[in-house]
Structures are given as structure tokens and as C-alpha cells.
Amino acid sequence: MNKLLFFFFSFSLSASIAFAQSSITGIIKKSSGEPVPRATIKVRGTNITVSADDNGAFKIDAKQELPFYLQVSSVGYKPQDFQILRYQETPIELVLVESALLDEIVVTSRRRSEVLQDVPIPITVIGGRAAENAGAFNVNRLKELVPSVQLYASNARNTTLNIRGLGSTFGLTNDGIDPGVGFYVDGVYHARPAATSTDFLDIEQIEILRGPQGTLFGKNTTAGAFNITTTKPTLTPSAKVELSVGNYNFIQAKTSVSGALAKDLAAKISISGTQRDGTIWNTREERRYSGQNNLGFKGQLYYTPSEKLQVLLSGDVSIQHPAGYPLVIAGVTTTERSAYRQYARIISDLGYQQPKIDPFSREINTNTPWRHNQSIGGISVNVDYKIGKGTLTSTTAWRFWNWDPTNDRDFSEVAALTKSQGNSRHDQYSQEVRYAGNLTDKLSGVIGVYLLGQNLKGLSQTEEVGKDQWRFVQTSNTGSQALYSTPGLLDGFGIKTNSTIKSLSAAVFAQVDWEVLKNLHVLPGLRYTYDKKDVDYDRVTYGGLQTNDATLLALKAAVYANQQFTTKVDNNNLSGNFTVSFRPNQNLNVYGTFSTAYKPVGVNVGGLPTTSTGAADLSVAVVKPEYVQHYELGAKTKPFKGAIVNISLFNSDIKDYQTNVQSPQLGVNRGYLANAEKVRVKGLEVDGSYQLERFLTLNAALAYLDGKYVKFTNAPLPLEETGHTELVNGVATQVAFKDASGGRLPGISKWNISGGTELSTAGSLATREGRYFIAGDASYRSEYSSNPTPSSVLNVKGYALFNARLGFKSDKFSLFVWSRNIANKNYYEQLQAAAGNSGLYAGVLGDPRTYGATIRYAF
């Protein structure tokens, strides 16, 4: 009995001592063994928090029963949880891993986690926080950070996203063509370029792959891909909020909450809202345009019942109702039409004054309200299951896009082309199944299948002219042409178009990485793709003067006419790549690539030009597929500690290049698709970065791009040559096309440069330990053509932009001020001819100087 009492007393005493001994001492270190000063240590699930001293030492009274977790975080390091199994008298050592080591960036572009410098593909990686700090809250802002990326948008629908000058048609978008740049978010392909206009939500990393991609995942792309990953829900409760305010009444708020719903089931909800007044003033309506009014929502469930299985269910929706994105009148040029058909004469005859050519006053005088409403979103399920040394992945998704715009396409107070409404509804369904991983010690790879179905509807798409349009289409004031002045003939005359494109794309793809000799890798890849498109196009006229007069009806039909056609097209393609990579050590990776790629057959659903009889020219209803042969040599190097220098040389030859051309006929206001026989883009890219501990980061990138039409014998006339005549059999005959062979491709600057730096030092703000920083970035683009056919007037001059930010950041709290376009540079992003090619052209303006402040807090 005495022994039993003694045992019970001893046990109780030791338990009491153990619980009483709840203090833990320790030191926070880097992986190199040096101390991490001022790190934050928190007992998970409680509010018990302390900070380490300048030598990384800490003491915390946990007051917890064993076992429990300590959460350790510090700016510039990956937050980590450490399990405490017992109390001890001696200090424990906890090691943090630097999160910003540039030579250890991990990417998933080959569907497995790899160090960026080991991947023989030219890739630019931008962290989610880095993008946010630079003010890049959507893809449009990234073009200033990555010289090889070009993005042009007069509105969300008319978005051109290119890499190295290739990808999508330049100018007005035609829904019948596929993008050449893949846009993926969490493994889901987004088929509509409008997705680039939505605000980022909880972005973890953005990988920009340059060059053809198709043997690794998803949709085949001829120019590259954006691979965006978002942060996943966590079982540990967490939340963050962010608020930004700035000039033009800019306000942006973001919040995200994550935590456990049940064992092994985590959830996250994220919300983002952006509001900004417009930067363009409409003097007629007395209201501002080109503002922002965005609301985004994303919800996720993450189920992890074992180390082998992970299931992620995601749903998102983004609603944008901005105050339009009008173009400003940029100039008037003389065409080769008769004096009677010059813009100045037309305006004068209608009794209007010449438009004010002062684009950077940021004023317009249009008489039709601009509206660019859209909603975009979807649902996806991603399942990862580990089998052997790899992972089997299934990604199932549905996405939608609704587009409801109104545009004034004469860009002025004139009642000419008064309304352009390309209402659209898009649904896409995709399924991808792939297996990726290490097959043996020397062999790794990926194999998969991909299906994409799309249903794109044009819903009563409207184009309408007003009372002044007669003078723009009238060729003379004699004969039947004089009857164009008949009162009300064209007033309210227009077309309504209903179209449907049902498309199917199916593919099988595979690529392996085989180390045939020590440090020598060969990477062959193949892709077989089948594409099918069914098109139903129906356009009917309405309005205008109701008459039975045959002459007047013919005049109306010369402006707009009914068009109907149906077509079914399909094609298949076998493409692939072959890469050789030599990696003699950790500091050098030299590679060479030959690849082929293709963009599927295109269809025209923006109106067809008419023949001499006035009928639709069905010969251009279908556009041939685009084929690419691509060569690339590259080297990824780490010349010394903290430094990275990468270089690549490339040449892309494109046969039957799909391009968007602008017809002088009003009935094809949106332009139509055509093939240029051959195009070539070649260039040089150099990018580098340097990191000195946590005090200094430098990055710079340069891209030299040379893009030309090798052969384009049937190019549309540029604006200034509209009305051009040539002698045909001794007779002066007006022509609509020219030989543009040797001319430069639109949207490509020969020189593209970007760079940035950040300096920081340790410090504290109130009771928070962190770092004070000052950072800046700059970008430069040389002149580029803004017209499918080289033009003497539709060229955007080169420009440079400078941005900066200054503030304080810690692992949980950040506060900084920022400014974009500090020099308030006036510049165009795009120029385009007004419909009808009478000599007027308009421009998309870049943003003026903006500035503000941002505060973030995580808990």
C-alpha cells in the first residue's frame, strides 16, 4: 500500500512539474546556421505570441499540454510549424528556410515540382505577393514586368494576349479564332481572353512559359502559356485583409478566410472589390469613363484524407460593370480616296466642326453611352492521387462568360456608326487526365488526354448607324448616289446577328525527360489533336426608311445586307518537340529545342466582305489552320552566389498565319480573319536577377523581337492608302489589297526592357518587427505597328514607365505608399482606324499617374 501511494504521489508530482514547466527557450536560425532576428513565434491555436531578439533567441510560456505546435514566421522566410513533443531545459533550435531564394524557385509547369533553373524551358516566375506589390492586380499589369509579353485591350472582349508577338489576332477580336497563348488557373484552361481582365484572388505564383506548349498539359498553344496557381485552403485557421486607396477615388479591398470544417477538410473564401473613377471625361454626357467597378468571389474546399489523395473543389465568379473603355480621337489622315470622301469634307458637309485632336486632354464627345459589362466564372474539381513515383491528376471544369457592351464606333458626336453591341454568351467544358512523375531514376515524364467543348453564342449582336451615316458612304452627289441624302434613309438602320460556334478539341499528349548519359537529358514530346467547329451565322437588317423603291433599297443594301451561312470544319494534327539539355553542374543548364505547333481552323463570325454582286464572300468564311516550326537555344546560369543570368535565342516560322484585317466595308466593322502565307519572328531574350541576403534584390530583362511578314500578298490596305488605284489592263482600278511582304507584324516592339530593385533594412513599427523598404521598377518599349498591315500613321511611339513604392513589411503586417507612371507619361497602347476608313483614327490611352497607399494584415 505504501509503495502504491508513493508511486501515485511521484506520478502526480512529475505531471504537475511537467505542466508547470511550460516555458520553452530556443533560437531561430537560417539554413546556413546564422540567427534570424526578430522572428515571430506563436503557439498554434492560441494568442500566445513572442518575438525573438536580435540574436534569434526567444522564450515563450506555452501553457499547453503536449504535444503542440509552434508557428514561426519572419519576412523573407517560409512560415513553418514545429511540433513540440517534450519540454526541455536546453534551448531548441528551429530552422527557417528562405522563401525568396531566387535560385530555388519551384515551378509546376511540367506538372511536377522542379527547381526553375533545372527546367529546359524559358520561364518567367512572378510570386503572388511580388505581383501585388508591383500593383499588378490583373494580367494587364504584368506586361510591364515581362518584356516578352504583349497585352492590348480596348475592352475585355477585344483583348490580345501575345508572347513574343504571337498568340492572338491584333485589334478587334473575332470569336472564331483560338488564342495562341494558353491561360490556366489551377490547371483549368480559360478559353476567352476576357479572363485576363479579372482581378487576381489569392495568387501564389504566376509562371509564364515562352514558346509553343502542347506536350505537357491542356490546350495546344503556339506561343506560350500563363500557368497561375492560387493558395490552397489550410486546416489551421487564418485570415488576411488588404485595403488600398488612391487618386481617382481608387479603392480596392480584399479579404480571405481559411480554416477547417471537419477532419481533413479545409475551406477558404476570398472576396475582392475594386472601384475607381474614370480617367476620360465625356463633355457631352458630363461623366467619366474608363474606370473600374469589379467584384470577385472565390470559394474552395480542400479534402486531404491521406498523403496519397488530395481533392480541391473551386468555384469563382467575377462581375465587372465599369464605366466603359472609350477610345479617344487620335488624328485624321488623308486617304487616297477622292476629295469628296475625305473625313474633313464629310464632316463639313454635315455641318459639324472638325474634331478636337487633343487625345491627352482625355476628353471625348461621343453621343452613345459606353458600356462594358461582363460576368465570368466557373466550377472545377481537381483530384490528385499518388501512384508509385508519380501522381494521377484529373481536372474537370465548367466555365462561363457573359458579355454585354455598348460602343460608339465613330468615336465622335457625329451620328454615324452610333451603336456596336457584340453581346456574347460562352460556355466551356473541359476534362484533363494525366499521369506525371519519375518513372525510374533516369526517366520522368507526363502522359495525358484532354477534352475541351465550347459553345459560343452571339446574342442579337447589334450594329446601328444614325442620320449622318449617308454622307460617309456616299461616293458622289450625282446619279443614284445623290439619293443617299433622302431623309431618314439610314437613320436607325442596322443589323442584328445571332451566331453559334460549337467546337470540340480533343488531344493525347506525352513528354519524357530521359538522362541518357550523366547530366545529358533528351526530352521528346508528341501531341495528337483533333478539332471540330460547327458554325451557324444569321444576320438580318432592320430599321431605316421603310420603302419599296428598288434604288433606295439597293443603297441600303450597300451599307448592310442580310447574311446567312452554316459550315462544319474539322482537322487534325500531329505535333511535338525534341529538346536536348546538358546540366554539367548546378550552375549551368544549356538546352536546344525544335518544336512544331498548330492553331486550329478558324471561322469568321464578324461579318463577311461582299462580292461584286453584293453577296457574302463565303470564300473567306473559313480560315486555314496555322502551323509553327520553332527553334530555340538557351542557357540558364548561376554565375555566382545570389545571381541568375538566363539567355535564349529563338526563331519561329509560321505558315498560314491567322490575322485580323479591317475591311473598308461598314458591314465588316469588326474585321474578318485571313491567312498570311508566311510569318517569321526571331529574337533574343536575356533576364537576370541578384539577391544580397535580404537587403537587396535586383532584376532586369531584355527582349529583342523581330517579327515580319515573310509573305503576305493579299494584305488589306492601310488607312492612308484606302482608295488606292492601279492600272489594270490600262484602266485605273481601285484595289482593296496590297503586297505587305517584308512588313513588320503588329504589336511587336523591337526592344523591350524591364527592371526593378528593392532595398530593405530591419526595423520596427510600433511593436512589430519587420523591414523598411524602398522599391521601384521601370519598363521601356520601342515603337510598334498598331495595324495588321504596316501603316505610316497607325504606329505607337516608344515609351518608358516608372513605378515606385515605399513602406514597411512584416510577416503579418504591411503598410506602404505607391505610385505608377510617376512621370505621368502620355502614351497610347493601341491605335485603330474608325469603321469605314474615311481617315479618322482613334487610340487606347495608357493610364496617367496614379498613386495611393496599401495596408495588409494577416492573422
Q: How would you explain this protein's 3D organization?
A:
With 859 residues, the protein is mainly β. The protein has six helices and 53 strands. The protein is globular and about 105 Å long. It comes from Pedobacter vanadiisoli. It is a multi-pass membrane protein. This is TonB-dependent receptor.
Provide a compact summary of the structure.
The chain is mainly beta and 859 residues long. It is globular, with a radius of gyration of 30 Å.
Please write out the topology.
Layout: H1 2-20, E1 23-30, E2 40-43, E3 49-51, E4 57-61, E5 68-73, E6 80-84, E7 92-96, E8 106-107, E9 114-115, E10 123-127, H2 128-133, H3 139-142, E11 149-153, E12 159-163, E13 181-185, E14 188-189, E15 203-210, E16 224-230, E17 238-246, E18 250-262, E19 265-276, E20 280-282, E21 287-289, E22 292-303, E23 309-320, E24 328-332, H4 343-349, E25 363-364, E26 371-387, E27 390-406, E28 417-421, E29 424-438, E30 443-465, H5 469-473, E31 494-517, E32 520-542, H6 550-559, E33 563-585, E34 588-599, E35 602-603, E36 622-623, E37 626-637, E38 643-661, E39 672-692, E40 696-711, E41 715-716, E42 725-728, E43 731-734, E44 737-738, E45 751-765, E46 768-781, E47 784-785, E48 795-796, E49 799-809, E50 813-820, E51 828-833, E52 840-845, E53 850-858
Parallel strand pairs: 1-7, 13-16, 20-25
Antiparallel strand pairs: 1-4, 2-3, 2-5, 5-6, 8-9, 10-15, 11-12, 13-14, 15-16, 17-18, 17-53, 18-19, 19-22, 20-21, 22-23, 23-26, 24-52, 26-27, 27-29, 28-30, 29-30, 30-31, 31-32, 32-33, 33-34, 34-37, 35-36, 37-38, 38-39, 39-40, 40-45, 41-44, 42-43, 45-46, 46-49, 47-48, 49-50, 50-53, 51-52
